[in-house]
Amino acid sequence: MAESWTGLPERPRLRRAIRHGLRTLEPSIRIVAEGFLAEASAIDLLGVGAEGEMVSLRIGRDEDDRALLTRSLSDLAWLRPRLADFLKLAPGLGLEPSTEPRALIVCPEFSREIMSAIDVFPAGAIQLLRYRCLTRQGQLSVMLDPVAPVEHAEEGDREATGSIPPEPCGMNPRPDDPAPSPRPRLTDPPATSTFRTGLTEADLQLVPRDPPVAH
Amino acid sequence: MPRDLADVFHYFLPETGTEAEPTQELLGGSPERRPARSDEIGVTRPVPAAVPPPLPILGVPIGSRDVLRAALAWNLTIETARLGASAVILAPAVDATSPLWPAPGAGPLGTELILSSATNLADLHHAAAETAARRAARARRGGIVFVRIPPDWLEEGDPETNPFRWLLLLTSANRRDLDEAFAMAETVVASNPVAEVGVTIHGVTTIDEARRGFETLSRRVQRRLGLDLSSYGLLVDDLDVYRAIAAQRPIGLAHPQAPAARALMDVARLLYEDARSRVLG
Lengths: 215, 281
Hints:
Number of strands of chain B: 8
CATH topology of chain A: Trna Endonuclease, Chain: A, domain 1
Helix content of chain B: 25-40%
Distance between the termini of chain A: 103 Å
Largest sheet of chain A: 7 strands, mixed
Largest sheet of chain B: 5 strands, mixed
Helix content of chain A: 10-25%
Largest interface: A-B, 52 and 65 residues
Number of helices of chain B: 9
Order of helices and strands of chain B: HEHEEEHEHEHEHEHHH
Radius of gyration of chain A: 23 Å
Strand order of the largest sheet of chain B: 1-5-2-4-3
Oligomer: heterodimer
Strand content of chain A: 15-25%
Radius of gyration of chain B: 22 Å
Number of domains of chain A: 1
């Protein structure tokens, strides 16, 4: 029988519990480093995803979500140009250099601003996970709950400054969650099947040529 | 803060007799393969200074006697370089004796024509990837590795074995060429279902003609193959193009104000903008 964890768990303990929880929630992610120093602060967990993409995971407490979003964006910017380094130095990681890094932000709750903000990024580039701390036989355990994209669209009737309270949930995605869409690149390709040109008809007009020189 | 390869290289070498610092975790295999760790988790030192990712690779199916498409591809390479990008074109070594290209080696504006001894798609892509990584080191503004792909290599390869993920089809707007472009798109999809395919319409005299040609092809490809084509503008086949082909001179340098040169620059810009949004083609 699981009970709510009282107080704040130590960070290493929380990190380890979330790492364990991820094995169930996203078994394709292989964690390859902990406390990995990026641009200015340490990435809590650094992993490699199913497609060989780097995954930065930042763990926060209440009210941390805005700062974590900033750090996650910094992680993506920092990781992207270093893929070649990782590939060269650790070829066994299974990295795929054509993939874009992505970020997971793990917090007890998220504000509406954060949920709106991540909508500007391609789906999957930044994912939000809520966690709840439980105790099972005296051990810390976390329940991870993906914040589904559909949830973002339902935010319209919430207070602009309100936050989304955590809800009890299992470690697996809910059965009625929509299937995740394929993860696009951080910068999506151009809109497809729309003819594009920067030319005007005037650009295609023949330029008058010099008259041929008579011999 | 370490920002040099040498600063961190020892992290990735096998450990010697001494214990690694408990506050460091190496990049390694799966966590299950590593020894048990204490609860103390500290900060791992960073990887070295940023090394730019390889340049995107753009495959362009061009037949072994298709002088026109080869000339357009070569000129697109030069126009891409005019935009400040690093641009190189890679072709199979069988092209050495063909009239498709100028002499191999350094070309205008830092461009380069490289012939590869590859005899199949995988080797050709491998050579392109090596070139892309090498050029990226000195390409401060990114660039593109253009690769001539012999169409029969695509057709003869096993399904879903084509490593090229970004391809450009050059087609005119006439019915027969659009049919050929559709067949090539079908081949590309069979060889790599996740390939991104772009189309440039050449040989047109008006924008509307190019638009109609592209839309005809894209509708058919979408309906029959489920593939969304990307548009990369239009090219003009005017007299300057053929003169440049004959003289093996870049159109944009010989006739920078010609419609053909403007169109080439526009297509190069579209390609370059997309290339900069990619990590690797």
